[in-house]
């Protein structure tokens, strides 16, 4: 079918986004032929460059114990800690879900135009990138627990401020405040869980962060539908203000939680770290070895602090270049495929597709949220059986097909509401089945210890900036390219994402950290050892 393009008004953000995705997509796919890892000879540097959380946190002692006595079990104390800290990621999901409905009433109450709607919706994701960038260094200085407390306070202030806003600019200001809290929580929640959890359950527990994002989105949709019958000015204020409830619960719950044992060891507080492992019911016979392993890795990390940003960005070695392309690339494609457009603008898109009642659009959005939550569980249960890449193949190709259906639902002059609902549900299902949760698994696996802090910051920054750009430009893109054209563009990006996974991303299922290290470093391991010593 033909698409009509109107260039009477060209939004600069839209042009920037189109150029950005085309350039990065081509660069990443072309890089695939050079960076596809081959299994090299053993690397003598393999034990000095950890590729994830596990060995960094004392994996050797835990794995040895598990071979002899079985897996370390999760007790009530550890489950409580994971549940409480996961509220931090739930806050992001709640904001995404609730803003999708609240913006309909805010638009009417404040008489907003498209660029103002995009700024209100997308500003949080852009600012959360700033919060994420500073979260790591701040938590290294004052501790994981205190940093999560700060995030809870910031989010609470932002939620209350948004609810009390009297005009567009004050709403935007408190939206920015909220974004800082979201960014800090998004980094600290998986970090805290990873540093406290047994290695055998760490991957699953870290992935729960994505589950809680989806639960938060669903809660936001439920609140939207529940309050939609109220006066519009009161409804959106309650929708946004209720976001303070989970952040207050997080603030209260964090007082009953311990500090991260790894951070305690890094501050020479081994006795306190030991007590944390005792409360988590780690077997007493492995705790001394576990603490020794952590101390060894902490000392190694301190010795390697001389690595600079220039080593990561300007003149990377083969190991760093390969892992950065994989880690940053998968974070880029997770957001560039249009997830934020799907969840933030679902009610508005459905209204444009022919659903006349606001409550009808919100009810359809609730169905989208339910599908998104249900589909997050299969990859968590089966990722170790079927591997990362199989889920990513299904996810990227499925999202491409769903976007094509969305494009058809707006063609030609009679939008098809039911097809629009089905295609959005199909998109979030395929997103949750693959690239949604597996992005975070891969990101935690690929980066070597020597650059992990900086690399994680860069990957999260790219993720949040891409997310914010999509949210900021979707309405303008729909006006520029027509809704069908915008969805075709996302379908093309999803196909590039499939090519990126096929040519660039390695399968990490069943590989030890040492094997991953050998894969990425190749024959240059010895050279890199000399470089960073």
UniProtKB/TrEMBL annotation:
Q: Which UniProt keywords apply?
A: Membrane, Transmembrane, Transmembrane helix, Transport
The family note in this entry says:
Belongs to the major facilitator superfamily. Sugar transporter (TC 2.A.1.1) family.
Tell me the InterPro entries matching this sequence. Answer: MFS_dom, MFS_sugar_transport-like, MFS_trans_sf, Myo-inositol_Transporter, Sugar/inositol_transpt, Sugar_transporter_CS
Report the main location listed first in the record.
membrane
Membrane topology, from the record: Multi-pass membrane protein
What subcellular compartments does it reside in? Membrane
Keyword match Lipid biosynthesis: no
Q: Where is the Major facilitator superfamily (MFS) profile domain?
A: 81-509
Q: What is this protein called in UniProt?
A: Major facilitator superfamily (MFS) profile domain-containing protein
Concerning Pfam families, the annotation shows: Sugar_tr
NCBIfam families registered for this protein in UniProt: SP
Keyword Ubl conjugation assigned to the entry: answer is: no
Task: List the GO terms this entry assigns under cellular component, sorted alphabetically.
Answer: membrane
**Membrane-spanning regions, if any?**
12-30, 77-105, 117-136, 148-166, 172-193, 205-223, 235-257, 391-411, 417-443, 455-475, 487-505
GO MF, any single term: transmembrane transporter activity
